[in-house]
């Protein structure tokens, strides 16, 4: 079974939870770590299952809680190189990984498919997350959908 939950969505902050019986991932951490953990608790989601945090781009409404959340959960935050380079030093977590847009990788039991999109950021990405045959998309700040977004959208069973 897959659990999905929007913990925050909009210009005041973004954070999305995708989980199963054993593992979970977060996409973006645009509100404080404290608020993310409280909202997870209120939704009955187990924070100890989180295996990684994927950041779509460097805007504050996507990264404001990532540094503290990485420390609290003991996981890596994942960025494209362009997004990581665009972060202020004070926003960079101590534990992080760099992904290449267009190249899938595995975190926990999830296959993560990051891909580029059009947005006013250094190297903005969206994510298609695959588990047990299910394809879930987290497509934020789209505006007008580019060909890559339309291509990935066709593969998804559910979207944020």
Describe the protein's topology.
Layout: E1 3-8, E2 15-19, E3 24-27, H1 33-42, E4 50-54, H2 60-63, H3 66-73, E5 76-80, H4 81-86, E6 96-99, E7 105-107, E8 110-116, E9 125-131, E10 134-138, H5 147-153, E11 158-159
Parallel strand pairs: 3-4, 4-5, 5-6, 10-11
Antiparallel strand pairs: 1-2, 2-3, 7-8, 8-9, 9-10
Task: Give an overview of the whole structure.
- This protein is an alpha/beta fold and 160 residues long.
- Helices cover 22% and strands 33% of the residues.
- The chain contains five helices and eleven strands.
- The protein has helices at 33-42, 60-63, 66-73, 81-86, 147-153; strands at 3-8, 15-19, 24-27, 50-54, 76-80, 96-99, 105-107, 110-116, 125-131, 134-138, 158-159.
- The strands form two sheets. Strands 1-2-3-4-5-6 form a six-stranded mixed beta sheet.
- α4 (81-86) links the parallel β5 and β6.
- The relative contact order is 0.17.
- The mean pLDDT is 94.
Describe the structure concisely.
The protein is an alpha/beta fold and 160 residues long. It has five helices and eleven strands.
Q: Approximately what portion of the residues adopt beta-strand conformation?
A: 25-35%
Share of helical residues:
10-25%
Radius of gyration, in Å, reads: 14 Å
Distance between the termini: 18 Å
Number of strands: 11
* Number of helical regions: 5
Secondary-structure element series: EEEHEHHEHEEEEEHE
Poorly predicted tracts of residues:
none
Structural class: alpha/beta
Shape: globular
């Amino acid at each position: 079974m897959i659990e999905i939950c929007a913990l925050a969505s909009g210009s005041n902050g973004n954070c999305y939870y995708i989980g199963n019986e054993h593992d979970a991932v977060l996409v973006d951490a645009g509100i404080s770590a404290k608020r993310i953990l409280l909202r997870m608790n209120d939704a009955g989601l187990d924070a100890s299952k989180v295996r990684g945090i994927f950041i779509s781009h460097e805007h504050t409404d996507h990264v404001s809680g990532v540094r503290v959340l990485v420390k609290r959960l003991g996981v890596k935050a994942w960025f494209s190189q362009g997004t990581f380079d665009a972060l202020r030093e004070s926003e960079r977590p101590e534990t992080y990984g760099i992904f290449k847009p267009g190249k899938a990788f595995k975190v926990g039991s999830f296959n993560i498919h990051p891909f580029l999109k059009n947005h006013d950021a250094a190297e903005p990405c969206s994510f298609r997350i695959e588990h047990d045959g299910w394809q879930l998309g987290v497509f934020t700040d789209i505006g007008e959908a580019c060909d890559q977004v339309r291509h990935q959208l066709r593969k998804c069973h559910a979207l944020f």
